[in-house]
Design goal:
Layout: H1 9-62, E1 64-65, E2 73-74, E3 78-83, E4 95-104, E5 107-114, E6 117-122, E7 132-136, E8 142-143, E9 159-163, E10 171-174
Antiparallel strand pairs: 1-3, 2-3, 3-4, 4-5, 5-6, 7-8, 7-9, 9-10
């Protein structure tokens, strides 16, 4: 007797079992890939947001000017002044801005306002323990407020520093108008 060619039932079941194991491994790897991709995306998006906020802060501070009726003021949690480089409004004209550090839900939040209206807030500072603003004068002395003394109202700080405080201190130091105290008259800032 001759045996007919083809697969036996047992061989077909073994092949189906191997295929099903390979498919389940592929789905598992696909799921792990999607999770890893999501984590990388969240991490890079957070880094991008943080870099964008730091750039906006630096541009806003570099564009600060000292106007007779709107001198920059600051505390360790709030910085207010007039800038020629606002983050949201058209640039070139004087815009009153305010940066504020707040603590909420165990996180530190940086809030940005133009014309007294909140434009956005950045709350991804969970790793930052004690963020604050520090102001440096022309003599290099630092203070947690600006102006550092009563009556000293006619100039900008040489440096405005956004520091994280705590043990692993990191800071973003920005010099208004390249570190040169600027006093501008309102008519010099008008745009047509």
């Amino acid at each position: 007797m001759r045996r007919e060619s083809g697969f036996t039932l047992m061989e077909a079941l073994v092949v189906l079992m191997l295929v099903s194991i390979l498919v389940s491994l592929a789905f598992e790897m696909l799921g792990a890939y999607r999770i890893a991709k999501g984590r990388v995306f969240e991490s890079s998006a957070g880094t991008d947001r943080r870099a964008l906020v730091q750039t906006w802060f630096a541009d806003s501070v570099r564009g600060m000017v000292a106007l007779p009726d709107a001198m920059p003021t600051g505390t360790s949690t709030k910085l207010a002044g007039v800038t020629l480089s606002p983050a949201m409004s058209a640039q070139g004209g004087p815009v009153p801005v305010e940066w504020e550090l707040m603590g909420e839900d165990g996180r530190s939040t940086l809030i940005y306002r133009e014309y007294g209206e909140e434009m956005w807030r950045y709350s991804s500072w969970a790793e930052v323990t004690e963020p604050r603003f520090v102001y440096a004068g022309d003599d290099g002395a630092t203070s947690d407020r600006w102006p550092p003394a009563l009556g000293e109202q006619s100039r900008l700080p040489s440096l405005i520093i956004l520091t994280s405080g705590g043990e692993g201190v990191s800071a973003l130091a920005v010099a208004p108008r390249n570190g040169k105290p600027v006093r501008a008259e309102a008519f010099e800032l008008e745009t047509d």
